[in-house]
Amino acid sequence: MSRIASQVVEHFQLTKHVFGASKVAATASTGKLDLLRNLGANLAIDYTKGLLEDLEEKFDVVYDTVGRVRLIEH
């Protein structure tokens, strides 16, 4: 497993076990959605197909590791 993949698994585990999340959603391009599922994401979202805020699912926390787009206006 690559270093990045192992870090993703660690983040998913922390999110579920330490912070008590019942589900973890993650975004990737179309070709990497199965990888996200295999790493433990309950919901793999294709960011090339639309906007996060347009999804029917609602999220309590969004952890943005890139920070290029403002997701929520206050």
Automatic annotation (TrEMBL):
PANTHER family for this protein: CYTOSOLIC ALKENAL_ONE OXIDOREDUCTASE (PTHR44573:SF3), NADPH-DEPENDENT ALKENAL/ONE OXIDOREDUCTASE, CHLOROPLASTIC (PTHR44573)
The organism's place on the tree of life at top rank: Eukaryota
Keywords per UniProt: Oxidoreductase
InterPro entries noted in UniProt: AOR-like, NAD(P)-bd_dom_sf
Gene: Vigan.04G124000
Keyword Oxidoreductase found: yes
One annotated GO molecular function: oxidoreductase activity, acting on the CH-CH group of donors, NAD or NADP as acceptor
Protein name (record): Alcohol dehydrogenase-like C-terminal domain-containing protein
Similarity section: Belongs to the zinc-containing alcohol dehydrogenase family. Quinone oxidoreductase subfamily.
